[in-house]
Design goal:
By secondary structure, the protein is an alpha+beta fold. Helices cover 17% and strands 36% of the residues. Residues 1-22 form the signal peptide.
Length: 127
């Protein structure tokens, strides 16, 4: 009985730490094409396959096109956000090459807590 209880506690701790990681703020700041981050900044093409670590990330295959809407800045400049079809999420900037730039001047804005939540079928998933 004690062994089963220890296993359940261990599973609970693992589950809780995974939840914290998937809602972790990745950066306090981001750069966008407009203050609301609604305009596409650029169109990029994947140079490698990418499978993100959790549901906040955009998965793609080499050659797929992605529309970029924001770029994390200051403490984490390697991650950009974009969409591919109806999928949206973070991806490393070194996994893509810029094909076309739509916005010449970027605006730096504070991130929001909702920037780091998982999106599933037009609703937020709170971990």
């Amino acid at each position: 009985m004690s062994r089963i209880l220890h296993q359940r506690i261990l599973l609970l701790v693992i589950s809780f730490s995974a939840s914290l990681q998937s809602t972790k703020v990745l950066s306090e700041w981001k750069k966008c094409g407009d203050p609301e981050c609604e305009k596409a900044m650029s169109r990029v093409q994947a140079t490698t396959d990418y499978l993100g670590p959790d549901c906040r990330y955009l998965n793609f295959k080499t050659g797929e096109e992605i529309m970029v809407y924001s770029k994390l800045s200051r403490e984490n400049e390697n991650l950009w956000t974009g969409s591919k079809g109806k999928d949206f999420g973070y991806f490393p900037r070194d996994a893509v090459k810029v094909e076309e730039v739509f916005i010449g001047e970027e605006v730096e804005v504070l991130t929001k807590e909702t920037d780091f939540l998982c999106l599933h079928e037009d609703k937020y998933v709170f971990e």
